Amino acid sequence: MPAKQKFVGRSVPRLEDRPLLLGQGRFAADISFAGQWQMRVVRSPVAHGKIGSIDIEGALRLPGVHAVWTHVDVAHIPHIPFRLTGLKPLEPYQQPVLAKNVVRYVGEPVAVIFAEDTYVAEDAADLVGLSIEPLRATIFAAEQPGIYDRHLTTEAGVVQKSYGDVDAAFRNAHAVVSLELSIGRHSGVPLETRGAIARYDAARDVLEMHGAAKVPHWNRDTIAQMLGRKKESVQLYEGHVGGGFGVRGEIYPEDVLVCAAALTFRRPIKWIEDRREHLIAANHSREQHHRVRAAIDKDGRILAIDDEFFHDNGAYMRTHAATVPDLTAAMLPGPYRVPAYRAVGHIRLTNKTPCGTYRAPGRYESTFVCERLLDAIAAKVGLDKIEIRKRNLIAKGAMPYRRGLDTLGTQIIYDSGDYALLLDKALKVAGWPELQKQVRERRKKGEKVGAGVAMFVEKSGLGPFDTVRIEVKPDGAVEVITGVASIGQGVETVIAQICADALGVDYGNIRVIHGQTERIARGMGAFASRVTVMCGEATRLAATKLRAQVLHAAAELMQTSSETLDIVNGEIIRAGASGPSMPLAELARTLPAGLSAEDTFESSHMVYPYGVHVAAVRIDTDTATIQIERYVIAYDVGKAVNPRLVEGQITGGLAQGIGGALLEEFLYDENGEPLSVTFADYLMPTAREVPKVSVLISEDAPSPLNPLGFKGAGEGGANPVGAVIASAIDDALQCPGAVTQLPITPQRLKAIMRDARNS
User: Fold this and answer.
1) Dist CA 756 CA 759 (whole Å)
2) Rg of the chain taking only CA atoms, in angstroms
3) C-alpha torsion sign, points 423, 414, 534, 370
4) What is the pLDDT of residues 40-54, one digit of tens each?
5) The pTM is what?
6) Under 8 Å CB-to-CB from 217, ≥6 apart: which residues?
C-alpha cells in the first residue's frame, strides 16, 4: 500500500513561482485590449485651494485626445464609501472621484484625459489649465482643529476605548511615567504600482475590471453600487500582483473613473500609475503623535495606562475610515497585564495625501509606544528591560484572556499564548547573556553599541466567513475556488497543502483559483493576515466533505463499504489491504454530476499570534548612521502550514519595519508641498541595511478557534521593529528614553547624541 504523504508543516516549493520565473507573469500593465484608450489623471499642484476654473480646451485640441472629464462629468457618482470601521461622523469626509470646488492635497485628481496612447494622454494633461486660489494648508495634526468645510472641522472623529478605573490607579500610583512619542508618515511601496483596465462587454452587459487585488468581491459590489449597476453585471479579475502591503487593492478614484469611462465610451480604458503618482496619491500611513503615561507600583508593575494620540489621516477618509487609529487604541496594551486602560485617539485631517492601512496597521505605532513605555518604566525603577517585561506579562494560565476592548467589530480575547516562554526562547537564540558581555567589552573600547528587545501581540484571522468550492476535473486535477486574493504571500501553495492533506492528493496536482469574482459568489479577500486561518479552514471543511463524497461513490463501484477505503496520492484504495485501486480521475469521469463540494467557515473572533524581536546595533558617531549587527525574531503562529513561507513573510516584514524605523518618511513643507516624491527623497532599505536575521517559528500555542490551530503570519516581521531598534539605540547611547520619534534619521540621531552629551 502506498505511503500517505502529509503536506501541512512542510516547506514544499511554491506553486505560483513557475510563471514568474519564466517571465510569464501577467501584471496590470501586461493586460491590454484591442481599441483601448489610455487614461491620464490631472492632479492638483496645490495642497489646499479653491478651484476657480479648469481649462480643458487646449487638451481637447491635441490630436489623439478623445475626451477630458472634470467633476461636472462625474457629479452623479457618489463619494467612495468605507469598507472597515466606518463611523457615521466620518462620512462627510469621504473622497469624491474628482475634486469639485476645493482641492485638499497635492496629487488630488481634478480631471482625467482619455487619449489614444499614454504619450498623448500625458502631453494633454500638461495642457489642462488650472486656476486654483491657494488657501492655508493644515500640516500638523496635533495643532488646534481648524475649519475643514463650512460646519466641519479638521477633527473628523474621536476613537475612545477604556476599562477599569484609570484615575484611581494614577491617584494611588507609586510613580507615574510619561512620554511624548511620534511615528513618522510612511507607507508600502510595492514593486508594481497601481493599475486598472476596464472594458464593457455589451453582448453580456458586463463591466469587467482587470488589475484587481486584495478585496475583489467588496470592490465589485461597491463599484456596481456607485455606478448604479447590479453586482452580477460587474466582474473583477486579479492577475499577478507585485506587492500589496495594505496599500494596493482598495478602491481609489482612478478605479471608479476607468469603470465609468468604459461604460460611457464603450471602449476599454487603461490606467497605470507612475512612481511619482504612487508616492503622492496612493494611501500613506502611520503618522501619529502620542502623549502616554503609565501608573506603576514600587516594583514596576503597571497599574494603568492612559494614552491620548493624534492620528494624521491626510485630506480625506478613504475606505479604511477609522481602522488604523481604532487598532492603535485597541492593541496598545500588547502582551502585558494592564488593570486599567484608557485611550483617546483624535482623527485629524490635514492637507496631505489621505491615509489607509500598511502592514501591521495601528500595531507598528502602538507597539512602539507600549515598548518605549516599558523601557521607561524599567529605567524609573532600576530594573533591566527583560525583568520589567517578565513582571508584567500575561501568564499562560490566564488564557483565553479577555482584554475588555474591541476592534474591527470583534471583542479582543487572546485565544492562546505563552509569552514568557517565547521570550526565553528568543533570548536563548540571541545568546543574550553573551551578547550583553560583548556589548560591555566593546563599550570599554569606545564603541557605541547596544541591544534591545521588544514584545508584541498581533491580530489575524479576521472573519466573518470564507467559502471554498473544490472540484475534481476529469483528468484528476483538483481545483479549489476561493474568494480570497493573492498579493504574493503564497496563497496557492498554502491552500493546496491544506487541501492535499484533507483530500488525499498531491499538492502539486491542485490549482487554487483566487481573485475572480465570476467564479464564486462571495469572498472576503486578503487582508488582516486572514487567508490561512479563514480560507484554510474553509478549504479543510470542503475537502473533508468532498473526500466523504468520493469514498461513498467509490464504495458502490468497488462493491465495498466506504469505511474500508482511503484516498492516497489521488488513488482510491482499500485501506490496509492490497488489491485494485481506482484513480480519482476515473471516478470523476464516471459520475454524471462530477465531483465537487462547497463549505463555509465562519468565525466571530480573531486569533492572536505573538512575538519577540531582539536587535543589536552599532552607531557610527561620525556619520550618525546605525548598523544593525544582530537580529532575532521569535514568532508563535500556532501551526505553520509552510515554515519557509512564514519565514519569508517575517523577513520581508522586517525590511519594511526597518524602513519605517530608520529611513522612510513622507515630508511636507509649510505649504503642504510634498518633499518625498522620488526615490532620491523617499529612502528605503536596501540589502545593505537589512541584516541577516535568525527566525524562530514557534508552535507552542495553537489557536483553539480552528481545528488546525492556525494563526496569521503576515505582519509579525514588521510590528515591533521601530520599538526594538529604539531600545537598542537607547542602550548604545546609555541614555534611556533618548529615542522618541521615528524614523531615527542621521539628522535626528545627531540631535539625540548632542542632547545626550549635554545631559
Assistant:
1) 5
2) 27
3) negative
4) 999 999 999 999 999
5) 0.97
6) 236, 483, 517, 522, 523, 524, 525
